[in-house]
Amino acid sequence: MPDLGAAADGHAIGHGCAKPRKHPKPGKGRKPARPRQPQEHADPPPPSSPPRGFTLRPNEGTGPPGGHGSSILTLPGQSREHVIDLHPVPTGECGHQYESAGHDPGTLLRHLVSVRDGKCGFPACSRHAQETDFEHAQPFGQGGRTCGCNGWSCSRSCHQVKQSPGWTVQEDKPGYHQWTTPVASRVVCTLSRGV
């Protein structure tokens, strides 16, 4: 597994979810091998040893474009392998590799922003990011990108606060939000609020 390290501020810069590895299907006309029947006088199998830890090894592929590589994961007591493609989490500089041309983000961009933020970006809200909407810092209708550098997790009720007179939100860099209240108080929220 490649060493991902962290951004200068200590936050993770990559994320991967394990998915079952797909193996080629047997060709047409091939019958699966029949399980061998145990012989009547065969010795009993040796007692199984307790499962050891998981194994992680590099995958043959290079991983997702702009990502941090790909690995094969095997869990104790399971024969099925899993593939983990490590995608960059949008923090700091953004490569725009998951940008969407439309208003709504793609599934992967939405997931990576949720992982990055951890919860709603409003200072007083604790709603988990998976239960929020993708919010544009600069509105899409005003030229804002649907990208990790212009998007964050925001619950619908906090979105209504953001739209209220006198409230503004500025995203200086991905995951870092500065809210200004109607009385000009400023509250800065950073990735440290996330997971």
Question: How is the topology of this model organized?
Answer:
Elements (H helix, E strand, L loop, with lengths): L13 E2 L2 E3 L34 E4 L11 E5 L6 E5 L1 E2 L18 H11 L15 E4 L14 E4 L1 H8 L4 E6 L2 E5 L5 E4 L6
Antiparallel strand pairs: 1-6, 2-5, 3-4, 4-5, 7-8, 9-10, 10-11
List the keywords.
3-stranded antiparallel β-sheet; mainly beta; 10% helix; 2 helices; 4-stranded antiparallel β-sheet; 195 residues
Commentary on this structure:
The protein is mostly beta strands. The protein is elongated. It has a 4-stranded antiparallel sheet with strand order 2-5-4-3, with no helix packed on it. It has helices at 107-117, 156-163, and strands at 14-15, 18-20, 55-58, 70-74, 81-85, 87-88, 133-136, 151-154, 168-173, 176-180, 186-189. It is 10% helix and 23% strand. It contains 2 helices and 11 strands, in the order ββββββαββαβββ.
Helicity, as a percent range: under 10%
Q: What's the total helix number?
A: 2
Separation of the first and last Cα atoms:
22 Å
Shape descriptor: elongated
Strand order of the biggest β-sheet: 2-5-4-3
Task: Give me the secondary-structure category.
Answer: mainly beta
- Poorly predicted tracts of residues: 33-47
Rg, rounded, reads 23 Å
Overall mean pLDDT stands at 77
* Percent of sequence in beta strands: 15-25%
Instruction: Tally the beta strands.
Output: 11
Largest sheet geometry: 4 strands, antiparallel
Helix/strand order, N-terminal first: EEEEEEHEEHEEE
